Amino acid sequence: MTVLVTARPAEAPPAVRPRRRRARRWAGALYAAPTAFMVGMFFLVPLGLVAWMSLHHWPLLGAPELNAPENYAGMADDELLSTAVWFTLKYTVIVTILLFALSFGLALLVQHPGRGIGLLRTAYFIPAAVGFASASLLFLGMLSDEIGPVNRILESLGLLHGYVSWTSGSSTSALSSAVGLVLWRFAGFNMLILLTGLQAIPVEVYEAARLDGASRWQLFRRITVPLMRPTIALVLTLMVTGSLLAFDQFWILTRGGPDNSTTSLVMVIYRKAFIELDLGSAAAISVVLLGVLVVFNVVQLAVLRRRG
Amino acid sequence: MRRLTGAALAILFLFPLAWSAFASVRTPKGFGLENYARLFTSDNGIRFEHVFNSVSVSLLTVGGTLLVSTLGGYAFGRFSFPGKDALFLLTLAILMVPYATILIALYVLLGWIGLQDSLIGLSLVLIMFQLPFSIFMMRNSFEAVPKELEESALIDGCTSFGALVRVMLPAVRPGLITVGLFAFLTSWSEFFAPLILLNSTDKFTMMLAVVNMRTASFGAIDYAALEAGVTFMAVPCLVLFLILQRSYVRGFMSGALRG
Amino acid sequence: MCSTVAAALLLGAAACGDDKAPATPANADSGATLTLWTRAATESVSKAYAAAYNATHKNQVQVTAYPNEEYPAKLASAAGAKALPDLFASDVVFAPQYASQGLWLDITDKFNALPVKDKVAPAHVRNGQWNKKNYAVPHTIDMSVMLYNKDLFTKAGLDPEKPPTTLQQFADDARAVNKLGGDIHGTYFGGNCGGCNVFTLWPSVWAGGGDVMNAEGTESTINGKEMSDVFALYRKLYSDGVAAPASKDEAGPTWLGALQSGKIGIAPAPSAWLGLIEEKATFKLGVAPISGMNGGESTFVGGDSIGIGATTKHATEAWDFVAWTLGDEAQVEVVAKGKGVPVRTDLASNKYSSADPRVVTINNLMGKGKTPYAKNFNATYNDPQSPWVTAFRGALFGDAKKSLDDGATALTASLKK
Predict the structure, then answer these.
(1) What residues contact residue C237 under an 8 Å CB cut-off, 6+ apart?
(2) ipTM here
C-alpha cells in the first residue's frame, strides 16, 4: 500500500503451533471485546432503532403505527429536502476542492524542515484546538457588525461602504462565511495527514528522477501524487463525509438562510425530528443518507484497492 | 517568497483566535475583565459545577477512549480473529451517522440502562463517537511497531498482555497521546450531546452555559461575553496543544494516518 | 376512575389518582421535588416563581433553563424517551402542538375548578387547549407594542406625548424622524426573523379587523387585503430608506441592540424591552399600542405557557405549583413586582404597575390582543426554514403579490400537516 521505510509487519500472527494460534485468536477477540461492546451497544442498537422508526409513524408519546413505505415515499414531495440535497452536494464539492487545495498547499509549504517551519505548522494547526461549535460562535462574533473587526478593516481599506451582513446578507456571502469557517478550522488537521504521506516518500526516489531530468511539475505529477494515493483518498473521504453531514456551521452561523439558501441535509433531519415532531420521516431520511455514505465509501475503497 | 506566503497565511490563521481574546477583554471604557465577570456571574453564566462537569466528562472520555482504543488497536493491528474486518468497518461507519439521527435513540437507550441524565452515560456516548478516529490511529500505530520487538517479549515468556504493557505501549506512545488529546478536545467542546442527554442544571457542561449566552432573551446576543466564553474554553486546549506538540506530531508522522 | 388502559399505562398512578375537585392542601404539598424546564428567555421569571413558591411550601421546584433555539429539540427528545419533567413551560404559540401530542397532562377539570379561571389571559388559555380540553395555563405574558424614542420625536418636531394612532401615522412619524439624517433611522424590523414578524406585524392586521388564519389554524389568509396592506406599508418604508438597512438581515439576535442604540425613531417591539432599553438609555421611551392601517388597537399576546409533564409521577404536587402561580400573591408579588405583565386580567392595575402609566397601558392591552392558534405554528411560522419566512421576505423585498399568494398556499399546506 505504501512505499515506506518503517517495517510493516504482516497481518498474520507469528508462525506458531495451531494451539498457540487459536490462543492468539482468542486473545485478539478478547482485546477487541470492549470495542465490540461499545460499537454494538451504543451504535448498532440505536441505529437499529432508527431503522425501525423509519418504518413507522412514530409519535413522541403513544404507540407507533407501521406505515412503511410512506416515510420514504414522502421524501420525493418534500421541497425543502430537495433544496437541501442540492445545496449539500454543491457545498460538498466546493469545500472538498478548496479545503483539499489549501491543505495540500500548506503541507507542501511545511514539508521541508527549516527555520520557523515548526512555528508555521503550529500556527496552521492551532484552529483545531477550538471545538467546532466554539469556532462557529467565534466566527459569528468576528463577522458581526457589532463587535467584529472584519467590517471595520474592510471599511478602512475602502472596500466596503455601508452596512453588510456576512452571515445572512446573500446566499453567496452566507455560504462563503460557512466555507471560510470550515477552511480555517480543518486545513491544519488535513495538512498534517497529507504531510505524513508526503514525508513517507523516500528522498532517493526524487533524486533518481531528478537525475533523469524531470521538472518540478513532473516530479509532482509522476511521483508525489501517485505515491500519496492512499493518503489523498483518506483525506478526501473525511472531507466528503464531513461535508455531507455538515450541520453546526449552518445552524449557528447562517441558520440555513437567507431564504433557505444554506440549509443542509442534516438541518432538514433536525427540523423534521424536533420541529415537525415527525420522528419516522426524520429516521427515513437518515437511513437514506447513511446508505448513500456507505455506498460512496465502499466504492471509494474498491477503487483504491484496485489501483493500489 | 515561500516564507512570505507561509507567514501571511500564518497570520490569517492566528487572527480569529487572537481577535477573540482581544474582544473578550474589550469593554466600552477600554480594556478590562468585565466580560469575564459577566460570563461567570450572569444568570445563565458559567458556574463552578459547569467547569467541574466539563473536566469530569473530558477525563472520563479520555480514559475510556484510551482504554478501548488501545486494546482494540492492539487487536486489529496484531491479531486476527473472527469478525475482525466487519468490526473494523462498523467502527468506521460511526463517522457516517449524524448526531441528530442517533441522539434520540441514544437517549432512549440510556434510559433503559439507567444512565440517563448522568455524566457517565454522556461519556460513554462521547467515547463511542471517538472510536473511529482512535481505533484507526491505534491500529496503525500498533501495525507500525516492528514485529521483532513483540516477538522477543513473547519468547521471553510474556503473555500477549505482558508484551502489550511492557513493550508495545511505550512504542505507541505518540499515538496514545494523539488519541488522548483529540478525545479531550472533542469532549471538552461538545454541545449537542450534553444538551440532549443531560437534564439537570447541576450536571451541565461549560459549553452549554456558553451557548446559553448566545440567546439570552428575544434577541440580545452578548457578543463580548460570548467571545470571553470561547476564549476561556479554548485556553486549556491551546495549552495542551502546545505542550504536547512534539508528541502528537510524531503520532501523526509515525505513519499512523497513512490511509 | 381510569378511563382507558392506555391512559393508565401512559400516565401511571398519577392519572388514576386525580380527583374531580381541586387537591386538598394536605396531600398536594407533600414535600416533593419538582423539576421545571423553561427556555433561556423565560428563565428569570420561572426562577422567580420557583423561589417564592419554595420559600412558602414543602414542595421544592427546581428550574432548568435551555438555550431558546434548541429547547424544542430538548423537549422532543425527552418526550421520545418518555422522560419529560414534572413541569415545563414553552412559547405559547407552540402550546397547541404540544397539547395535541399529549406532552402535558389533561387539566381541564382542575382548571375549571379554579375560582380565577375566567380572569386568566383568555388568549393564552385557548392556546393551551386541544379538542376542547385544557393542557396548559399562562406562565408569562409578553406583548408587542410600539416603542418610540421621545427625544428623537421632539427633535423631529413631533409631539412626544402624542404617539401615532394609526399605522399610516406611524409611517409618517417614522419618515419625520428619518429626515434627521446621519445614522438615525425612522424604524426597524426583523426582516429575516419569522417569529419577530408575526409578533409585530400581525396586530396591525387584527386591529384592522382582518386575520392571518382561520380560527382552527388550518388555513392561511395572508394574501387578504389587511395583511397585504400592512406589508405594502412596511415595504415602502424599507425601500424609501426609512427602515434601517440592517432590518433586511435581522434574524432576531441584534434586534434589541438596534433599539438600544437610540438611533431608531419608532418601532414595534416586545413590551418587556421597555425596562431593558431604558436601563442603558440616555433617552426617554414612549409606549403606544400597535394600530391598524386606519385605526384600532391590538397586540400579539405572547409569552410562555406552562403545564404538567405527561410522564410525571407528581401530578398533584405539580398542579399545586401551577395553581399557585395563577394566584394573587404570585401575580402581584412575583410578576408585577418584577415589572412583568400579570397573567390575570383583573390584576392589570396593581400596586406596582400604577407607578408607571406606561405599564398600565401595556397591561390593559391584554384584553384587546390575540394569540394565534395553530398546531403547526413552529414549522409554519417560527422556524428559519418555514414557508412564512419565504412568504414575508418576498412580500417585503421581492414580488409581493406572488409571494403572498404562493405563501398562502404553502402555509395552508404546512398548517394542515
Answers:
(1) C171, C174, C175, C186, C187, C243
(2) 0.90
